[in-house]
Write a structure and sequence with these properties.
By secondary structure, the protein is mainly α. It has eight helices and no strands.
């Protein structure tokens, strides 16, 4: 699995000279948002979960309470991850450009005004978000029709979205449109889903989820340079 090898190597790039400075701000965004998410989940979660349990289900409180609490925690972290990706998008593009420059040993691309980078990144993030929402609908329908397959369908959906989320940064830096990105990644579907699945699992591990974003961007850029980029 080429993509998984790149993901494993990406951890060593976090402390590499010339790369660290591009990681600090996304890392600060992640820490701040996950701390806020954890506070919100634990401070308000207890009252919210209790309000979701009707009185006639009090006898199942011991079973339903943990399930609702875990579901709420996952939803909170997922929501804050979306916000973190939106805020950090311009800096993730800069990180991808720095990693590609170091990997290929080529001169850095011409500087683009920061405001233009931010505007382009926000537009691209909204484009991806609309695509993810549109893809969620048929996934939900299939999950309702085939309940036994629901966990596998949602895991495949999450893996595909995570792969597109992070592989977009190096590919967009090289003027690859989102439609073409999807076409290229479908040609390497196994590697793409393995990478996306591993990144999704990484975001659920406490502490590691704080560095999941820069690690995913670095791994995506290495995978792009070594296995996706045309000669």
């Amino acid at each position: 699995m080429n993509a998984l090898a790149c993901l494993a190597e990406a951890f060593a790039w976090l402390i590499r000279p010339g790369i660290r400075r591009f990681i600090l701000l996304p890392l600060a965004v992640n820490i701040t948002l996950f701390a806020a998410g954890s506070y919100a989940a634990f401070h308000y979660g207890d009252a919210l979960v209790a309000s979701l349990l009707p009185g006639w289900l009090a006898w199942l409180h011991w079973l339903l309470y943990p399930l609702l609490a875990v579901a709420l925690l996952i939803l909170t972290y997922y929501s804050f991850s979306l916000v973190a990706n939106l805020i950090a998008a311009p800096f993730n593009s800069l990180l991808a450009a720095a990693v590609e420059k170091a990997e290929r040993g080529e001169p850095a691309p011409a500087d683009t005004p920061l405001w233009r980078e931010i505007a382009a990144s926000f537009a691209q993030e909204l484009h991806k978000l609309l695509y993810f929402l549109a893809l969620a609908l048929p996934t939900l329908i299939l999950a309702l029709i085939l309940p036994p397959l629901a966990p596998f369908l949602w895991f495949a959906y999450t893996a595909w979205c995570a792969a597109l989320q992070y592989l977009d940064y190096p590919m967009a830096n090289n003027a690859i449109r989102f439609r073409e990105q999807r076409a290229r990644l479908r040609q390497k579907r196994t590697d793409t889903l393995a990478y996306g699945g591993a990144v999704s699992l990484l975001t659920t591990v406490p502490v590691l989820n704080l560095i999941a974003m820069p690690v995913a961007v670095i791994a995506a850029t290495l995978y792009w340079c070594r296995h996706l980029r045309e000669p």
